[in-house]
Design goal:
heterodimer; A: about 120 residues; four-stranded antiparallel β-sheet; globular; B: four-stranded antiparallel β-sheet
Chain lengths: ~120, ~120
């Protein structure tokens, strides 16, 4: 069975500072990895995804993430955050190979941007 | 191209009543997933359906919960005899392809169920 761990429930950051949101996963098979963002009272929006190929993935709104197979991590980064980045961020994993599962989500990290 | 639609956005029920949540997937998507989000928690997978078929309901509680995705019309998540612990946000997602491929799921805005 797969699982996702987001170690930080909240991350406060000053505006224009860099940020890293951590995500570790466990799975016995190859995986696809996703980061979603959820703004208050809204659904989830895909930021970026890793399927295969280059381990550095660029997404929307200036975010990027790096897949590290040896450390089973997929941390999300942004070099300079904006007040509008305040939201809940979810890391998710889906197993490859035809498993009939939905996505497995972490508990989320609340990114708080301070002016 | 309209996104995933869910209605109602907010639903209030008294204990013992039935809750019926609707999800219309994106045009051309035949794969639908339901998730539940409890306060301070991530989303938990409940059920995966294709048209007229339940493919994986491993995340669904064994009693009171059911889901369908008929040939015509939206997918329905039905909760009978609701209890306070059912209060949560229920999200629907759709995908043009099934698991094991580029399974990008597109999420609806959710239905927030409150059980009094």
């Amino acid at each position: 069975a797969q699982s996702v761990t987001q170690l930080d429930s909240q991350v406060p950051v000053f505006e224009e500072a860099p940020v890293e949101l951590r995500c570790n996963y466990s799975s016995s098979v190859s995986v696809y990895l996703f980061w979603y963002v959820q703004y208050p009272n809204q659904g989830l929006q895909l930021l970026l995804k890793y399927l295969s190929g280059s381990t550095l993935v660029k997404g929307i709104n200036g975010f990027e993430a790096e897949f590290n197979k040896s450390q089973t991590s997929f941390h999300l980064r942004k070099p300079s955050v904006h007040i509008s980045d305040t939201a809940e961020y979810f890391c998710a994993v889906s197993e490859g190979g035809g498993g009939a599962d939905g996505l497995t989500f972490g508990k989320g990290t609340h990114l708080i941007i301070q002016p | 191209n309209a996104g995933v639609m869910q209605n109602p956005r907010h639903l209030v029920r008294r204990r013992g009543q039935e809750a019926r949540l609707r999800c219309s997937p994106m045009k051309g998507h035949s794969h639908v997933y339901w998730y539940r989000q409890l306060p301070e928690e991530g989303l938990k997978f409940m059920v995966y359906l294709q048209k007229e078929n339940i493919i994986d309901e491993s995340g669904m509680p064994k009693e009171r919960f059911s889901a369908e995705f008929p040939k015509e019309g939206p997918s329905i998540l039905r909760i009978q005899q609701v209890v306070r612990g059912d209060s949560a946000a229920y999200f629907c997602a759709s995908s043009p392809r099934g698991p094991g491929s580029d399974n990008e799921q597109f999420f609806g805005p959710g239905t927030r169920l409150t059980v009094l």
